[in-house]
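Continuing from the previous page...

OK, I double-checked the sequence for dTDP-4-dehydrorhamnose reductase against my notes and this is the correct one:
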Amino acid sequence: MKLLVFGQTGQVAREIQALAGPGLEIVALGRDRADLGDPAACVAHIAQTGADAVINAAAYTGVDTAEDEETLATVINGEAPGAMAHAAAERALPFLHISTDYVFDGSGTTPHAPGDPVAPVNAYGRSKLAGEIAVRATGGHHAILRTSWVFSAHGSNFVKTMLRLSESRDALSVVEDQIGGPTPAADIAQTLVTMARAMVGGQGGGTYHYAGSPATSWAGFARETFSIAGREVTVTGIPSKDYPTPARRPLNSRLDCATLETDFGITPADWKAGLAKVVPCVIRELEKTP
Ligand SMILES: NC(=O)C1=CN([C@@H]2O[C@H](COP(=O)(O)OP(=O)(O)OC[C@H]3O[C@@H](n4cnc5c(N)ncnc54)[C@H](OP(=O)(O)O)[C@@H]3O)[C@@H](O)[C@H]2O)C=CC1
Ligand SMILES: Cc1cn([C@H]2C[C@H](O)[C@@H](COP(=O)(O)OP(=O)(O)O[C@H]3O[C@@H](C)C(=O)[C@@H](O)[C@H]3O)O2)c(=O)[nH]c1=O
Ligand SMILES: [Mg+2]
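Thanks. Re-ran it with the corrected sequence; updated structure tokens here:
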């Protein structure tokens, strides 16, 4: 199988490229070749590709900066995926797109199913919802995979932020009332490739959820990070109102992943196992960058 991937440097894009090998060819396009701010440029790549399926792993992911750049975020996260999905549909290529828990308003305490009502509470969430709607509207063979709280050895993520802060602090206040599933980028990459294979074979399609298990809070995620790192950092759990940010975040980010198992046989993995692999890599990377 040959996959055309938008995104090269991002957490998930890097992990998809790491899966390349016998039976799996990956062509990953970075911003230099395909700028999602220019949807027509992305379409041109799909029109010419010899790939069997297309994955969009690029996005505007700055949750707080999106509050001031919603127009740009909406082009990148909304228009560009829509244009890609349209081009893929015209060539009858399966199109796989990644979305987020932040399309939900975060009410309730039970996991959100894929069909539950969406109502984003911030600009990033609205821009990602625009992408979902545009991809679905093409009517092509597509999958939208919503995930949450992504971490990996590379790129910026919460694990790296916590480990960097712990270099100069032995106590941190971290929100404890936002609950979700931390998800290793490597597991998302594997999931997407499995889905792509099935879709190339004519199976599956629609909106799915995939998040690490079990659900925790950001404070719980931070504590597990420091425990694995062997660092004694006191994490004090605080309510969201005590950690003001430009963008509001949903409180309930739990995702119900059952239909992914039904359609593709994929079950959510324990994020702590993924974290144990990632933490030493992040520590090494931080040691290299003063
Ligand atoms: N990070 C998270 O916690 C979560 C992410 N998601 C979704 O998962 C997907 C992958 O996210 P993740 O791997 O974490 O992303 P990252 O933030 O790690 O990387 C974003 C990627 O998008 C690229 N990109 C941004 N703007 C453009 C542009 N205008 N043109 C081309 N490329 C661009 C970046 O390239 P460059 O290096 O050049 O900037 C980078 O490769 C996204 O759809 C995201 O919305 C969903 C839930 C949680
Ligand atoms: C650094 C820090 C953050 N926080 C809080 C702020 C916030 O509520 C929470 C997480 O902060 P972050 O900025 O890392 O997370 P954020 O950028 O909101 O992460 C989101 O990214 C997008 C792309 C997604 O799609 C989501 O699934 C989610 O992963 O932790 C603290 O409470 N204390 C701290 O010291
Ligand atoms: Mg962030």
